[in-house]
Amino acid sequence: MRSRSNSGVRLDYYQRIVHRLILAHQEPVTGLFPASNVNSHAWIRDNVYCILAVWGLSMAYKKIADQDEDRAKCYELEQSCVKLMRGLLMAMMNQKDKVEKFKMTQSPYDSLHAKYSSKNGLPVVGDNEWGHLQIDAVSLYLLILAQMTASGLQIVFSLDEVSFIQNLVFYIESAYSIPDYGIWERGDKTNHGEPELNASSIGMAKAALEAMNELDLFGARGGPASVIHVLADEAHKCQAVLQSMLPRESNSKELDSGLLCVIGFPAFAVDDAQLIHNTKDAILSRLQGKYGCKRFLRDGYRTPKEDPSRLYYERWELRMFENIECEWPLFYCYLILFHAFQSDKRAVEEYASRLEKIMVRSEDGILLVPESYAVPQDLVGFEYQKPGSQVREVVGRCPFLWGQSLFILGRLLQEGFLAVGELDPLNRRLGAQKKPDVVVQVVIIAEDNEIRDKLAEHDLHVQTIAEVAPIEVQPARVLSHLYTYLGRNRKLGLSGRKSRDVGILSTSKLYSLKDRIFAFTPQFADLSRFYIASDNELMIDILKGEINFLKSAWDLLGRPLVTLVLKRIHLDQDKIPLAMIQTMRKLKSGYINGTRVMLGSLKDFLNTSAITDLSFLGSTEDGYPDRLHPDVQTYLDEHLLRSFSNRSTMNLRGGQLRPRTLRRRMSCKGAIKKTRSINVDSDNLGMEGPSPLTERRLSSIVPPPWLQANKQSHVSVFATTPEEGPTSSPLSLGNELIRENIYPVDPHHSRSAIDRRSEFVRQQEMPKILIQRHRAETNFADTEVEELIAMLRETENLEEQGDILQYLVDTQGLDFNTAGLGFKNKPEDNGTPTSNANNAAGTGTDPDSAAHPSAATATANSNSQCIGNTSNISSSSSNISNHNNMSPHENNHDSSQSEGMLEEGRVVTVRDLLKGLYEKACQQKLWGLVRHTAGMLGKRVEDLAKAVTDLLVRQKQVTVGMPPNNEHTITAPLPEVELRQLIHDAYGDDESTAMLTQELMVYLAMFIRTEPQLFHEMLRLRVGLIIQVMAKELSRTLNCDGEAASEHLLNLSPFEMKNLLYHILSGKEFAVSSVARGNLSIVSCKSSRVSKKSQIGLGDPEGEDALIATIDDRQGQWLRRRRLDGALNRVPRDFYSRVWTVLEKCQGLAIEGRVLQQSLTQEMTPGELKFALEVETALNQIPQPEYRQLVVEALMVLTLVTEHNMVPTLGGIIYVEHLVHKANQLFLEDQRKVQGDATLCCAKIKDGKEQQQAASGMLLCGGAAYICQHLYDSAPSGSYGTMTYMSRAVALVLDCVPKHGEMECAIS
């Protein structure tokens, strides 16, 4: 026998170690590893880490296999890996029902178990007896499964297993928004069993999603059916949240050594090299010790001070664990691997030598990695005095297989048996390297030839939908429907993907299906969406944002491709809007906002785009993988014909009747305005109680609109062009019109009904509106309602219609029927509409009309018109015109005919009238009315829940409602319906502001995705306050009173609203210029010295006034900044951790009646998010933003006192407001001395009248909280700055500061 090479001998040595330490424990039946000799439970996470050494060793053997026995050893090791991975797969597949349920509930009790029996793979503890929800464990399993498959192992054997793994991908894809128990199975570190969002779980899930994407589980032998599909957007959301969290682990753990597995091997989940560096440095500087790293700060596990008799900790006892936490050698193993992958030999050697010093030698000389090192009971006192000085002892398992396995991998890398690439065949380690610039391809397609020709006039040449064939263009919702077929499996009872969201990364690919190619338009372009979709400028703005996002987020093969369809509905007065033309020209130039773009046609980009195969749509389960699934086939056949074919939309217009009566108009005037609650002028910036007039009288009877989900599931968007004359009554909307004079006259009709009806009609002088006479519950005479409706039909002013409808809603409720006396008819005259009727009313053309009978309504006097169907127009208009000159007698018959409609239960409710008004207001761009009617109809932004989740997962809490009384905080993702209800409750009857709140949440979510830096040092986004500040800023810029400012604010177009929000978030100066039709436009001014004339289009200040205006602007600068920072809750850097140091030295801080107790420092660490939220909650008690900002400044002065160690303790409870008021006093004394501005108001020598005013709580200068306006407007620095006064106040108020003697005083 030939002698072995040295390397062979060395490998045999490792093989013996692996066999003795690891494989000897593997259960022969299931292939799982028990936790220890006494505990037979097998944890998913520990098992996967244990097998890594075996996998690494098998690959090392594969390289030197010069003899048969080496090949045999290699095969044997590989099969051990397969056995373990399949053992875990079987254990999880036994819980397939949980996977299915979890997709819906995401509840911790429906999650896969974290551990199984190693004997038979069955569950060992109940669903609620353990913190089972550990997304990082399932993610780690999927990640290593992908890596092993890529290295050539075959672990998955059947297509049923493939669909189970596809469902595991759905299980982890929302990791970014699911709080779990994390890598240490604890959740919140007090161990009370509260799950929290953990960065280590999100990072592991992101890595697993990327590794699984387009992976063939059958390796080289597979086909399209064994490929796993991942929606790129889900992985990207995980990445975005991860980047916003690092180096924080969770709300209660400001740092965690477990993050080492996310920034390095095995996950490599972070793409930003700087962030990797910062996270590693934070861990080393705060958690590293002589014996390894602590898991996290104040980790009580296995410390001598821990009470082993109970699982949880009391909140006050966490402080006892500080500096005596156990240290884990495991993390040195991670650090060795981290540096080996960075090929930093020096660091690898340093950690290897540190690790060897703390390893334990067994009797036969093998080095073992122990689980952890604790301070012995008797040395705890010394360790407290001098952290890190005492000798520690081993506690826990030895060897700790998780650590031992990683140690062996590190050794194999160090000795050159493995290259880093072999442990990472999917090349995840290269993620942080710089990538070349992305070129975004844009294709614009015209809906029809007419639009194509209009674009050609501007030298923009595009194709129509018909011309791009054979490529088919579909809206994003078709793609989201197709993805629901992914992962379906009847045998396993798995239903496929549940989330309906497809993001821009998914729609920027082409998709092939058999021999067809599909392009999808992005989700934001779906027009059935919310009213913000009818603002073209905003849509363009979103498009630019998405293109910019693609530049940074795209990492697939090929270039991203954005397909847009320009439709009739986008036209403005039959012209293509200028903003669109300008954007297209920019796209044509090749650059837009710093991103490289290419404008072209679909066929040009076929070769350069990413193409995904939708092979999973085949009916594999029925044995026909090459045929489409029958459901998919029917869906596509139905939808492909319809999705972009011209839907004939109708436009309903009332007769052109002039108003003849003003009798009842006054009672409704301003009905909408009365519901407003934005308060700008009043001193306390709070919300006034709702005035009794606007209380909903029928709220007990009429269910709120959003509970009736079916009521408005489909609203078609109407198109009008101004040439058609002013539209009058919004009396109808929906997919069917009353087919008035087409119904055959029924001679047997009951005469009395006709008589009664005709008398009614004459009294109305209007043929069609019929009111139910017998209403028991109304408080008003019938005539009033009838007159109102008559007025509603006459007025052409949409605002007036809005007021009348608001009044009707307040008095009658949304479901009040404005048509029909409800007579029953003989059955035979039901179904005899002539073909002409169908034609004229345009029914049957809208595929959705049948599905929504509730939306179908009746109308009177309307010129029904079908766009795109000219033959109908003539027939229907002639019907109407002859209808208007009928004699009263003919009218009788006519009304009798309309019964055919009414008896099918078709009624015109106030809600239907509102819908019509909403549509019209959208076309005419009357945004204030649009917001109000949308609110009354209970509409909700479609992405509301997603927007709120986007803010929450980036650790920003959101509050809605006006402080101080009605503020509701949202701290966890809520379902859409609950959110809408919460917002509605917060604003009472103020529908416009409730709508505006939803809209602003969507914009905030857009900004936090694209410009996270705007949100630095902000923990809570208080939408109510932001709305108030927006109104205040408008009133300041436009020089108008609060009510006018609220009106202007609510009438801003969605695009300008987003723009104003941006200026307020970024603190940039802005000006308002007036544009046509009274709309305002927000423009940045580069300096605040722009002459006022150019800025304000409303009443230009002339001459001297203009001069004063410029001076004034300089004057209110600091007040404005404090107001903005206060409303946005912005604080200085490291503010909360510095407040922690103050709290440590005093017994408490009192702010506006809330006391922050010193005990908080016992429970929480300085950098902990939970602590910051406590401080924030106390500050939020202060209703006035500028006053809140001064309190923050006072706290900053206190932190300076503690940081410079001027005094050993600050004494008892400090009342922070006392400091602010003392500073104000000192300020006013100085003002009197130097005759400053404040002598005109607060520093005046008081006489009787003045004192009265002061007593009644009004300052002359209007300053909030009895603090002079001029102090708010002082700069922080300088000898008359606020910081100077605060410091003097601290010196005077606190007893602990020495009153005499020399003090070195320097304020940095």
TrEMBL record:
InterPro entries (alphabetical): 6-hairpin_glycosidase_sf (IPR008928), 6hp_glycosidase-like_sf (IPR012341), GH15-like (IPR011613), KPBA/B_C (IPR045583), PHK_A/B_su (IPR008734)
GO molecular function, one term: calmodulin binding
Biased composition regions of type Polar residues, renumbered to the chain: 831-842
Subcellular location: Cell membrane
Domain GH15-like: 8-1024
Region (Disordered), start-end ranges: 820-902
Pathway participation: Glycan biosynthesis; glycogen metabolism
One BP term from GO: glycogen metabolic process
GO cellular component: phosphorylase kinase complex; plasma membrane
Annotated ranges, domain Phosphorylase b kinase regulatory subunit alpha/beta C-terminal: 1038-1232
Keyword Phosphoprotein in record: yes
Keyword ATP-binding recorded: no
The protein's role, per its UniProt record: Phosphorylase b kinase catalyzes the phosphorylation of serine in certain substrates, including troponin I. The alpha chain may bind calmodulin.
Protein name: Phosphorylase b kinase regulatory subunit
Species of origin: Drosophila yakuba (Fruit fly)
